């Protein structure tokens, strides 16, 4: 039973971090690709840092931080499972909404629409698996190996972050090697890289079904420790009863 739960928590954390870290670390490349940030060659270093910081701050204030607030407000009302499932679902929807009509978003008049949808992927990451993948492993496993299972799940997430960081760096390079960044081979382009992230989110959606709901249940109930305690108490009580019997005096 707990093996499937561990597979669910580790795989969803792994898949989430592939998508989440790819989006976070390479916002500059994505915004440059659609023209929301001017090309680096047209700015000095200070201007480039300012433009990137402004864009990232806007995304954080409008989507990332509010997503966490929504999770805090609703995690005990609608449950961890529902929030995680909903998060992966909408991350998938919005990622494909960016990727499939990608050429449409590169036009100057449509850049704001791209940024809005892109922000929603961050909102539902935080009002979704980016919060629950940390919480759930701390609730569903027995105390005797809870820390171990949480550590394994967390390690899977960090592995996903590495895959996302390096994978997207190479995948998002231009298909034309002459237009790729210096020192990098030709990639599949930003459009196809976003499609890959959408597929990753779909996988996260389905692996979420391996994770049980913990809303309104104690740690002992979730881990099954009450059941284990009940089965161990019965023999002890029976043994105590046998020891207390007296032999009649004749």
TrEMBL record:
InterPro entries: MFS_dom, MFS_sugar_transport-like, MFS_trans_sf. Residues 1-19 form the signal peptide. Coiled coil: none annotated. The keyword Membrane applies. Its main location: membrane. Residues 1-216 form the Major facilitator superfamily (MFS) profile domain. It is found in: Membrane. Keywords: Membrane, Signal, Transmembrane, Transmembrane helix. Residues 238-250 have a biased composition (Polar residues). The chain crosses the membrane at residues 58-75, 81-100, 112-131, 151-172, 193-212. Residues 220-250 are annotated as: Disordered. PANTHER family: SOLUTE CARRIER FAMILY 22 MEMBER. This is Inorganic phosphate transporter 1-7. It comes from Mucuna pruriens. The gene is PHT1-7.
